Amino acid sequence: MAIADGRSLWQRVQPYVLVFDVPLALIIGVLLSVGLITLYSAGIAIPGKVWDQLRNIAAAVLVMWIVANIPPQTMMRMAVPVYAVGVALLVAVALFGVIKGGSRRWLYVGTQIQPSELMKIAMPLMLAWFFQREQGHVRWQTYVIAALLLAIPAGLIARQPDLGTALLVTAAGAYVIFLGGLSWRALGVLAGLAAAALPLLWAVMHDYQRDRVLTLIDPYHDPLGKGFHIIQSMIAIGSGGVTGKGWTHGTQAHLEFIPERTTDFIFAVFSEEFGLLGNLVLMVLYLLLIWRGLTIAMNAPTLFTRLLAGAVTMIYFTYAFVNMGMVSGIIPVVGVPLPFMSYGGTALMTLGLGGGILMSVQRHR
């Protein structure tokens, strides 16, 4: 069907439909497929998990498509309002948020939302806008202001307490600050100050957070209590051997020794069933995801888009590294999902939003 300008309806809507970057979309699609396969096995005794995740994936893909259609210039104009709304919601959580399990992380606005998830994207968006605004006039004061912009939401999230999300938001902002031109010397000084502040951090940590650090150092000091879950996770990873026990044949998962086996600890299920070879394939997929994201960042035309795409890509890296590390027992358990594999709607929406940003940068360059 042709219309006034001689183009068919498909020719007119095609630029808004075919917006996905093909290499990035393929990598994400494979990760989602691997996640569904693993989730089926991990949740075989929990009816409806796979169908629920399919709905989550559909919502995440829709978000990715919508964001991919938004020009980076529009995102730059949205940076300050989104950041301001995010901080306001965090303040609202601190004042009258919903308490669950001793943590005040949720806000009821007709439905329950977790504003800290918004800051994982709002933080790099805001700092990328700030460094674009300061381009050509970057001084040491610029980094001080950027650090304050980062510290406000990170402190509010840590106070909930939600140390895992606070660390992720801090990492997202730190990537922008580093990519914005922070020197290695300054980075070394900051690392030294952070190391010097560890005793103070230990003093203000909650008891359960200290227990996680102590459990990391020696999980066998309480093998049937605090160390039980991480010990069982490491057993699952080791028992997979080179080739794994086979799909749906993982004993640790199906005998319910692995905690949160459909969410934070899904990597242990995957390792047990697909072994070392499966883990290598999975790591290659994540390396390809990071490679594609960094390629998009390097080809971006403006400082804003380079910083934003670079930060989003490194957020993916942080998610994967922290999740695999905590499940393997090399870093404390902080409750971080495995990107595009763990069950859950909120985290998947955030990851899909990040993918949409990368595709928008690539599409509009």
Question: How would you describe the overall organization of this protein?
Answer:
- Helix 2 runs antiparallel to helix 3, helix 2 runs antiparallel to helix 13 and helix 6 runs antiparallel to helix 7.
- This protein is mostly helical and 365 residues long.
- It is globular, with a radius of gyration of 21 Å.
- Helix content is 70%, strand content 3%.
- The model has no long low-confidence stretch (mean pLDDT 85).
- It contains 15 helices and 3 strands.
- The two termini are 31 Å apart.
- The chain has a 3-stranded antiparallel β-sheet, with helices on one face.
Distance between the termini: 31 Å
Lateral strand order in the biggest sheet: 1-2-3
Q: State the total count of DSSP E strands.
A: 3
Instruction: Give the integer mean of the pLDDT values.
Output: 85
User: Which secondary-structure class do the elements indicate?
Assistant: mainly alpha
Overall outline = globular
Order of helices and strands: HHHHEEEHHHHHHHHHHH
User: What is the makeup of the main sheet?
Assistant: 3 strands, antiparallel
Q: How helical, in percent, are the residues?
A: 55-70%
By DSSP (H or I, 4+ residues per run), the number of helices equals 15
Range of strand content: under 5%
CA gyration radius, whole angstroms: 21 Å
> What low-confidence regions span 5 or more consecutive residues with pLDDT below 50?
none
